[in-house]
Amino acid sequence: MSDESIEVKTVMPVYTLKQLVLYFFKLGYAGFGGPVALVGYMHRDLVENRKWITEEDYREGLALAQLAPGPLAAQLGIYIGFVHYRVIGATFCGLAFVIPSFIMVVLIGIAYKVFGGLPWMQAVFYGVGAAVIGIIAMSAYKLTTKSVSRFNTTAMRQNWLLWVFYVVGAAITIITQKEEVLLFMTAGILYMMIKAPPQWMRKSTAANSVLLAGIGFWDFETGTLAKIALFFTKAGAFVFGSGLAIVPFLHGGVVTENHWLTEAQFVDAVAVAMITPGPVVITVGFIGYLVAGFPGACVASLATFLPCYLFTVIPAPYFKKIAKNKSIKAFVDGITAAVIGALVGAVVVIAINTFTQNHAVIIDAPSVLIAIATVLALLYIKKIQEPYIILVAAVVGLILKTII
Questions:
Q1: What total of structural domains would you count in the chain?
Q2: Residue span of the structural domain in which 383 resides
Q3: Integer Cα distance of 188 and 59 in angstroms
């Protein structure tokens, strides 16, 4: 790898690697709300408030994270670690982000093994899930104003094509309930061709390019571990989009194909992912624990996150260099608009599933009120922290399920 192929950052960072790693460690144990909220927290904290990362670096990281398979928030965190501290920064930030929530899901897995289920989980999730909708809705709104344009006539007219990609991305995500990487690529290519076509495209011709007993801690079989490694590697390497996108893939392999978990256990696993902080994809650690104890949790988590780490770190130097090109910038702008639209679509999909009872078309009014109260709290109580909202929502959910 030649020196010319990598652009080395010449501007000294205004933060230390220790500070950045501690930030991602805190985000890992206190960052609720799933991928949309987590990428919003990173923007608010690192770009707007602390100004450690530039808007340009953030947007490039978000675009790369969406283009590569794997969990969105974890990939963006890895990329942000890479910006100034290269592979060491990417490695330590990625580990700091994942380890706290991994420990939490293993502890919950132990409790699940001991008590045979989580009867209180649905009551907690009733309140927490509604609050999470409010949190991620606010995060999606902020990302929209930063990455597409503000909600005023002049800005929207100037960026009308980005808004088209945004709306199409949201609509397709709502209809299909998954995120389409082909859509993101198409949006990027179209915006590049219209706004800043590369030099070769302006010419007349162009060529095509292309150990603890009783709690299941050490209860595993080597053959099962191998199957876990293979399946979760595929999950990490071939599922694009946010952590939400991996859920259907996991269901097919864990419940239908391998029969590792029952339907009820899988639903509990998704609930665990939603009420714990950090990346939603960390549910793989909980699933791995139920299937093959602590070794299973470790193998499942490593197999899922290692591909996304490699897919982020390996292209990052080249992506950083070519992103300076005007045509590539237009390509990234088009992708980003479609990405944010798809994330908004994901918010709608989650809300529909959260606000309806047993998937019937009956709106659950208390859930809607909790979500609205969350949005209002975030809008008007400036210093309120999301974990406090989650805690209050959990208590409200328990109370409502007790009296209703």
A1: 1
A2: 12-203+309-403
A3: 13
